[in-house]
User: Fold this.
Amino acid sequence: MLHALSRFGRRRTFLGGAAALVVLGLLLWWVLPIGREQPSGSLTFSTGVRSGVYERYGQRLEGALAKDMPDVSIRLQTSEGSQQNIERVATGKADFTIATADAVATYLQSGKPGGERLRGCVRLYDDYIQLIVPRDSGIRTVADLRGKRVGVGQKGSGVLLVADRLMKAAGVDPATDITPVQAGIDTMPARLADGRLDAFFWSGGLPTGAVQDLSEKFAIRLVPLEEALVTQLQAAGGSTRYYRSAVMPADAYLDAQQGQAVQTVAVSNLLITTDRTDPLMTEAFTRTVIDSRDRIGREVHSAQLVDLRTAIYTDPLPLHEGARRYYRSAKP
Assistant:
């Protein structure tokens, strides 16, 4: 009788252990990409100017990529912005980057090297064009910038591209009617606070940390960019069709806006690469961007706006084959 009970106990222990292994196996299957081929090698991700949204997003994304692609060595590279980012990827100096759709279209239309090899991965979030002035400034419209010292972004930035276009649409010649200061978001706020600038343009997600910090230390105001300016921009055709009217919500910069929504211009950001990039790498990269949205979005608000339903629309670029594979697998 005791022998039978002992055998019964051993059988129960065995069955319990087997059940635990099954549960553990199911958990591992759920958590880990078992059976999914993983990319290896190295990649360079060109981000943006220090303290800008591109750089902050890239830093958080690097951690997510390292976790999801442990066999890939990842290098971040700061830049002046969209225009420099596109050139780097198109010419093989970087593998992935973020750039605004208008800057991508401009690069394609200019016939610069490597443009035909550019591919889209994800439509990310929108950039909002921000014209920032001291709160007591007399600048109320873009036309009021005549005779002023204006921060227009760095040479390789998307800010410079759209700032010049907005001023021309308002009848302001950016070469002769203002004193242009080519600087980035890392220095323009301090220049405004110190009185070395009368205004500066910025193009970024909401809120941009450097603008937020400035608004908490120095009284600033956001100049509305009226819908008529968008109509003027779009009338030029070509890459300007990617601009659209938008509204910055009243709580984007609480101190600066004082409860008021602000009319502005928006343009979408794209994650881009080239047809040189391995489809397996691109598929995995795209997956991480989508899967890490909420986690990164807790620190970089713009990341919360990445949406699987619209991510596939990377106009003016065709989708990379690797990204296409991901979207096919992600269909409900």
Remarks:
- The beta strands are 41-46, 72-77, 96-100, 118-134, 149-151, 179-181, 199-204, 220-222, 244-248, 262-274.
- The CA atoms of residues 247 and 280 lie 38 Å apart.
